[in-house]
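Forum > Structural Biology > Help requests

Title: Can anyone predict the 3D structure of MFS transporter?

Hi all, first post here. I have the sequence for MFS transporter but no way to get a structure on my laptop. I'd be grateful if someone could post the structure tokens.
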Amino acid sequence: MANKLSSEVAHFNSQPHNFRILVLTNLVYAFVLPVIDIFVAAYVMRNSNDPTKVVIYQLTIYTGIPLTFLLNGFLLKHFNIRKLYSIGMMLSAVSMMVMMSLKTLDLTGIGIAGIIMGMSFGFYWSNRDYLALAITNDGNRNYYYGLETFFYTIIAVVIPVVIGWFIESHDGAAAVQRAYSIITGVVLVITILASVVCFRGHFTNPVQRKFVYFKFHPLWYRMLFLALLKGLAQGFLVTAPAMLIMRLLGKEGALGTAQSVGAIIAAITMYVLGRITKPSHRVAVFAGGLILFTMAAVINGILFNGLGVILFMLFLLMAKPLMDLAYFPIQFQVIDVLSKIEKRGEFAYILNHEAGLYVGRFMGAGVFLLLAYGYSVEIALRYAIIIIAVLQLYSIILSKRIIKESQALGAEAPAPADTIDPVEATMHSV
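Reply #1:
Sure, ran it for you. Structure tokens for MFS transporter below:
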């Protein structure tokens, strides 16, 4: 066992400096993600007891993300990518501070906090996606995302339990509010630490080219449709666990425990898959995640009780990382190929891809809101996920076609001589 661990550490250390720094930056920031994804939604649910407000909060976040992606493209002309990446991480703490300062959770206050959180995600993900694309290649992307997912899932074992029971250890509304405020302060400290780690990297900005386009190769439109299908789940799934658990189990402690069930097994599985799978395995990995997601949705719809929520979380704990492990390398493979064919900077595709996600997120959230207002919140919580999961199954067929076409185009399109290799570019600072 010791020899195996030493071998894995040596494999990680053999990766380029920027590869390691980006993984470590995201590892530190990973301690914040469960708080953002779960407990902020739980805070809204606890103080409003209105699932529709949670979804509206999520919609404002998703509105801020593409706008900030666009803003980030312009700011990259004037600021180093490390600064913008760090600002994105720290804005998540600012958003939580705004939320905690609200005396009543009205739609205006929720909207402001949501837009700031959306800006946080926009700066974070636009720069993170570019850097991940720049420092990896098609051969090591499975390892990169397997490694990240391993750390994220391990952290998901500890953080939800610790925070959930920390909140429950405080009696009374004032004490619970104080507990959430303490958590917000810790989040701020962690985001600052993640920023310090980020500045150890020698990251360079994307080559400055035009990055807003409205016409693309037909392959990219298929990739956008795949992004739309992915966004369907994101539009509702980020806050669905919190809403289900707060409604059916009722306590943050139960929320934390449910998040941690099976996480160790999931983490090890993701790491192993990242190490041993090849690009040819991506459709199978993607299909596995989508099928598990559908099973989770059906179980939740049939049972719709405490046991159903725990099983839903258990299946989801495996489904989400499996989908991401395959999805991001597929996306980056398409960008690698089309950026050479169309002679455009990679950031143009990262920005446009966010538009596909945005449309899907609104449609996914819209399914929930239509069922909630047209029928009932219970119907929405029970059946919206099933509808979305079934629609997402088409992603299996679509991803297979996208991979086949991108491989064919990649074989036909050599890199232009005047193109700067983004992997080599990241080895030098601006």
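Residues 415-430 have pLDDT under 50 and may be disordered. The radius of gyration is 21 Å.
Shout if anything looks off.
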